[in-house]
Amino acid sequence: LEISNLSEKDILVLRLDLTDRSSHEAATNSVLKYFGKIDVLVNNGGRSQRSLFVDTNLDVYSAIMELNYLGTISLTKHVLNHMIQRKKGKIVTVSSVMGIMGAPLASGYCASKHALQGFFNSLRTELTDYPEISIINICPGPVQSKIIQNVFTENLAKSIENSGDQSHKMPTDRCVRLTLVSTANDLKEAWISDHPYLAVCYLWQYAPTWAWWLMNKMGKKRIQNFKSGVVSLFLSPPLAYSA
Q1: CA 25 to CA 75: how far, in whole Å?
Q2: Rounded Cα distance, 69 and 72, in Å
Q3: Secretion signal: which residues (predicted)?
Q4: Which end of the chain is less enclosed by CB atoms within 10 A, N or C?
């Protein structure tokens, strides 16, 4: 309101629980009743993970998929019905670079993001009769947020004790700006990350054998740090660098 021409009537805030799928249709209808249309849906809800698979209860994986995957596609389904009627709209889903690679201590999170990538890439092919409905996948690397403070651990009742320094991550406003640029230009997929994380994405895409070797080296060190209680960057020196 302070930096735009918007007024109070141009903003509607609704409480929404992605895991309460029975409420998504009513929430969608509330927005449609207030504004008359939905131009853009940004799916940006989810939680990450910090635990080893062998130590993690299966109900944690169920909760991750319920929130990150099923909750997202549930809300998408109700909004998409409206966009199909209008034959117009944009569905922007915040996935992750973990949706295109694997990483230790985040197997459930990676699985949920891989699921989103597969779903929305498939959905895009089902909407060829609606060329003005855009399916846009955003894959950020590390971004400054509270995602680490709220990660899943090996059981649902346990929270993480030390979230570590977040200053090395991409500032939130830069990630948002690049997401908006990607949305305005109808990019099917955008990797939004600084190096060295972005370099690893390209390596994973074009030289997967080298990527697996590198990930094994980095993963072993990261797991050692995790077990000893040391909070480390995903890429540690000498592999970490700035550009």
Answers
A1: 8
A2: 5
A3: none
A4: C
